[in-house]
Amino acid sequence: MTPGWSGWQELLAHATVALETPHGMGTGFSVAPGVIVTCAHVIAPDSGALPETVVGEVVISGQKLTLTCAPEDYFRDEHGLDLAFLRWPGLLPPVLVKPTFAIGDPMWTFGHPESRFRGGQSAMLRYEGPGRLHGPDGIEVHRVFGAPVYPGASGSPVVNLATGAVCGMLCLAGSSGSAHFLSAREILERCPEARILAGGGHLMHESWLEDLTDEQIRRGGWAFPGPTLRDYLRFAVKAADSHPYPGVVPGFSPPPLSEVYVQPLAWQGDEPEAGQPGLREPVPAKAIIDEERDAILVGDAGSGKSSFMRVEVKAMIDRYLRGADNRVPVRVMAADLVGAQPLAELVAASVNGELHAVGFGRTLSGEFFARPPAPGARWLVLVDSLDEVMRADQRRAVLDKLLAPGEDRPFDLVIATRPLTEPHPAIGRYALLPFTIEQVRQFASGWFGHLGLPNPAAMAERFTAALRAQGVAELAQSPLVATMLCQLFAADSEAALPTGRTKVYERFVELLNGRRFSGTPSGIRQQVLGVLAPYGRDAEDVGEALLADSQELVQRLAFARQKGAAEGVVALLAEWTAPLRPGDVPPDTWRELLTGLVRRGGQLAQRHGEFMFLHQTIEEYLAAQYVAADPYRTRDELGEVFNAASWKTGRVTVGRQSYARFLVAACGQRPEVAGALRRIARRGGLDGARFVAALAADGIRIEAQLARTTLASLRRHAMRSRSDDEMRLAVTAAAQLDARTGQALLIRQIRKRRNGLAYRRWALLALAEAA
Questions:
Q1: Which residues contact 132 (CB under 8 A, 6 or more apart)?
Q2: 3-state DSSP call for residue 486?
Q3: % of residues, the chain, pLDDT over 90
Q4: Which own/partner pairs from 511-516 qualify as long-range (CB within 8 Å, at least 24 positions apart)?
Q5: CA separation (Å) from 540 to 170, 570, 572, 584?
Q6: How many CA atoms lie within 13 A of 76 on its CB side?
Q7: Which of 327, 344, 503, 632 is the least buried, fewest Cβ under 10 Å from its Cβ?
Q8: Which residues pair with 17 in a beta bridge?
Q9: How far apart are CA 47 and CA 174, in angstroms?
Q10: What distance in Å separates the CA atoms of residue 39 and residue 82, rounded to the nearest whole number?
């Protein structure tokens, strides 16, 4: 930096040239590589008097220039045009040009007058409006008023401070404070090199643009991120690439998400109707982003919807900064959009909470999201976990906000959700598919490489072999479960992997608890006892009791969330533990203790100052454990969850089914469980039969009679349904329950010519994979 100069002012000074010709002195400035513009009268009175060379100096750096002017670069006529271009074989960085200005705009000029300020003189001006030289046919010039400018300043750049760019060239000056400039539009019309550069060659102007304010960027209309947007992009990448789940392998932190991410596949749209021609393959899930239209992404619990959105935030920001995409991603949780405030304010609150957690120093306003992020750009709002908005009317209200029609809506939209009972909005639809076993192997290799295991590719082969041997390969096709299993395998590759979905979650939670209750000085026991020690031995004993009850408290909290409790986590825990708090421990200290206990537990994470479970399925698993610990709760909850009529009418959401699977596993072989399963297998429709089959995939033993009843129901749906989607669901569930039955159904579906060609091809591929 040169003393006295900063930012774009210094760049302009390095582009401004003091000119000396046989006819006088003046100023010029660089508008393109090797091209200096100035007033024609500075060079010569007419084209016949052009000198062979013009002497120039960039005074700020002392650089000497020898410039030439050809007759075709000299523009001076009876209408008042006064413009010339000088050529130089070297490279002088050009100024940023934008011929935009309005009455009242503040302006600034810098030139080299014929005075003791020949080394350079600045002047503040204000735009007062247009004028015309030599009558109605004369050229338009623009008047400014402010500090006086003197001879020799002709040809100086005039900067509009409202845009931060050169808007014209000083052509007529006076010592009274009144001056006129020629619009930069006249320069661009006569200089192709400058016109190309002004049309979008931002690489050469990047340093200049980076020094402009948000308002200058907007007023200038550049497709370039302003300082607030650049800050947002930097921290949005940091937040998106943070792995959403904790590490449980001692000595290792979770990797950046992009290091271990594997792109999943998805079905695009609805399946073709039976008898309709056409084949369709699954597509990479990122096609939902590439389509550039509103869309909804549907996937089961743990299928990787949130991870997909996080990775796409990082990838899209990279594309935007490279100029390969004009959309700027913003990821928000659907539950943050439930309030009555305007949508932009709700989005801002959601984003601020996410980014402040990774050190973002600004607070973004609703106005920031209510308009395009930059000229020529649009937001892409990625709405995560619509299914976690508990009430159907609230989900509908969120969708109504997001999908409200409007020509000036500054965003496109992608919504991620588990399947819901209410119809999805009429926008593009994608269904996220589970990992293939090859994707599981690729995913595991990335994890093992990050964990520093020797030969991660060979370790991944061992891992996938262990998955098959333990019968949990299908479970590992869920990215969340694969994440857990990779860490469990890395923690002890010689130990058998857990069998069944519940066992995987149980072992993962055990490792989380083992980490937090370590005997090191930073362990949670030492921290709790350290806080309570000043209040005496009895308070320390209470601390031990609190630690002993802590997992049950977390399970109770999960159950409360499943039942729709909306109170804050610490408030609920304070209420439940009030009888335990010693009288001499202040309430605030007790709440701080509970906050630390939850934060260190690893099963919840903090967002917007509130705690949420790391994943909905972890909440479901813990809630099921809480129910199973009490026979009365078990009886009541089983009666509510396994109401056959609800299953028959499709009112039991997929999220509720996920919780019910954990509940069945937790409650074991109790008679009421067996009775509930028999009811929904017989009278719960396709959802009920598929649920029983999913239990088998979870590793839960299904009694023979229940299996026969379920298979009979699935056969009926597979053979009689007119929907390809329903037939595929029924056949897939039958294969989960009994491989031989599933293969026999697939063969029948392939042979049935009335089935759609795409569906028969899917069945053939499924048969090949199963065999």
A1: 138, 139, 140, 141
A2: helix
A3: 33
A4: 511/248, 511/487, 512/246, 512/248, 512/601, 512/602, 512/603, 513/551, 513/601, 513/602, 515/248, 515/250, 515/602, 516/600, 516/601, 516/602
A5: 80, 20, 22, 12
A6: 20
A7: 632
A8: 28
A9: 26
A10: 5
And the tokens for 64?
């000497």
pLDDT at residue 79 in the model: 82
Say what the pLDDT of residue 364 is.
94
CA distances from 300 to 267, 306, 416, 738 (A): 13, 11, 10, 22
Q: Is 759 exposed, middle or buried (0-12, 13-18, 19+ CB in 10 A)?
A: buried
Tell me if residue 397 falls in helix, strand or coil: helix
Distances (CA, A) of 342 to 42, 366, 692: 58, 8, 44
Cβ-based burial of 347 (10 A; exposed 0-12, middle 13-18, buried ≥19): buried
AA letter at 460: A
Q: Kindly provide the residue ranges of all beta strands, DSSP E only, lying in 569-638, ordered along the sequence.
A: 604-607, 610-613
Per-residue pLDDT, 272: 38
Which helix or strand (DSSP H or E) is residue 167 part of? strand 165-172
Classify strands 121-132 and 140-146 as parallel, antiparallel or unpaired: antiparallel
**Is 273 a residue whose pLDDT tops 50?**
no
Q: What is the mean pLDDT of residues 140-147?
A: 91
Rounded alpha-carbon distances, angstroms, from residue 510 to 9, 488, 503, 628: 61, 11, 10, 18
Q: Which two tokens stand for residue 391?
A: 């009430």
Name the residue type at position 92.
L
Per-residue CA distances from 304 to 240, 290, 477, 615 (Å): 14, 18, 10, 11
Mean pLDDT on 217-232: 92
Instruction: State the pLDDT at residue 277.
Output: 40
Structure tokens at 115: 């005075």
Across 169-183, average pLDDT:
85
Q: What is the pLDDT of residue 769?
A: 75
- Do residues 312 and 327 make contact, with C-beta atoms less than 8 angstroms apart? no
pTM of the model: 0.75
Residue tagged 């390095």 (tokens): 14
Residue 663: what residue type?
L
Instruction: Give the contacts of 378 (CB within 8 A, at least 6 positions apart).
Output: 326, 327, 328, 372, 410, 411, 412
Q: How far is CA 417 from CA 103, 312, 747, in A?
A: 51, 16, 33
